[in-house]
Structures are given as structure tokens and as C-alpha cells.
Amino acid sequence: MKKIAKLAYLFGVLPLVSYAQCGLECDPTSSAILIGGIEYPVNCYLNSQKVSQNPDIATESMLEPCDFAITFVDMKKDTLAATYTNRGVIHIALGNYDGAFSDFNIGMNLLPEAAQIMVNRGNAFYHTGNYQMAIEDYNQSIELGYADFADVYLNLGKSYERMGNITLAQQNYQQAIDLSPNQAEARSLLDGLLSQSDF
User: Fold this and answer.
1) What is the structure's pLDDT at 131?
2) CATH (residue range 2-148)
3) Residue 84 scores a pLDDT above 60
4) In the chain, where are the structural domains located?
5) N or C: the chain end with fewer CB closer than 10 Å?
6) What percentage of residues in the chain have a pLDDT greater than 90?
């Protein structure tokens, strides 16, 4: 618990944002870690925030402040992990999944207790169709402290539904709604599954 509290103090977490209310055809949500104090890491974060809200605006030039920060800026371990993670979010939006996995793995090696990184890597697994690994990362993020984060359960529900496990999909959509009653996408997906079970 002390580690989670410490991380909460060190990092501001950008809430997970759904790209649109488009069900399983929609990409899962992305998250990024807010950092402060140094221009290039901050610009890297701001770019990751923009693409997590709208991946269609991603450009290669958005990686430049991340690359510069990682190469030239002397950062503390947690800030370096955050910058790798933010760059990974941009790589996902660009469709560069190898780059995303590389960045998230480095971030996890630097800061293995950061649940945010597990969520982001889970998103990358979802994008590549590896739903079982996505489920493992989302569940690990819950164990690391994201048990009250509704969008992680939304992503879990989508992953389980993609794998054909309707019962666990329904349970996770319901958990997302219980945590965030205004979670419209989870409500829509759950209603769709419930209506299919009526036939």
C-alpha cells in the first residue's frame, strides 16, 4: 500500500478515455502518466495525452520530445519510466506496436510497481489481437492498485468478449458500471450481450 501511495504522490494519472462509443470495434482506452518540471518530458506527456484522446492525430514528430528527453535529459527513474510509457502510447497510435512494447517493457523494468504501464501494455496487446495477454496485464494493473479504475474493467470486458467468454465480459462491464455509473460504453456493451442472451 505504501508503494501505491508513493506512486499516487509522484504521478498524476490521466484518466483513461474511450476513443468513441463504438463497442468492440473501438480501440481500448489508453492512459498516460503526467510528469512535470522538464520541458521535453512534459511535451512528450502532452503529446501522449492528445493521441490517447484522438489517435488519428498522431504523427512521427510527436515522438521527438520523447526521444530527446530519453537520450539527453537527466531524469529520475520514475520520470524516465513515465517518459518511456508516454512514448509507448504515441507508438500505439502510430501503429508501431514493436516500439510500444519495447517502451512499456523498459518502463516496467524501471518501475515495476506502476499499474499505469500495465494498462498501456494491455492496450497494445489488445490492438495486436493478443487478448489473453491483454487480460493478464489488465488484471495485473488491478492487483497493483487500479481496482477502482472503471475503464480497466471496460477493457477487460472487451478482451473477454473478443475471446468468447461472455460471462466474464458481462461481469467486467458490470464492474465498470458499478464504479462509474456514467460509463456509457460499458452500459451499451453489457446491454448488447444481455439482449443476445434473451434469444
Assistant:
1) 98
2) 1.25.40.10
3) yes
4) 2-148
5) C
6) 74
Confidence of residue 25 (pLDDT cuts 50, 70, 90): low
Q: What is the 3-state secondary structure (H, E, C) of the chain?
A: CHHHHHHHHHCEECCCECCCCCHHHCCCCECCEECCCCHHHHHHHHHHHHHHHCHHHCCHHHHHHHHHHHHHCCCCHHHHHHHHHHHHHHHHHHCCHHHHHHHHHHHHHHCCCCHHHHHHHHHHHHHCCCHHHHHHHHHHHHHHHHCCCHHHHHHHHHHHHHCCCHHHHHHHHHHHHHHCCCCHHHHHHHHHHHHHHCC
Beta-bridge mates of residue 30: 17
Taking CA 86 as the corner, what is the angle to CA 88 and CA 119, rounded to the nearest 5 degrees?
70
**pLDDT (0 to 100) of residue 33:** 39
Amino acid letter for position 171: Q
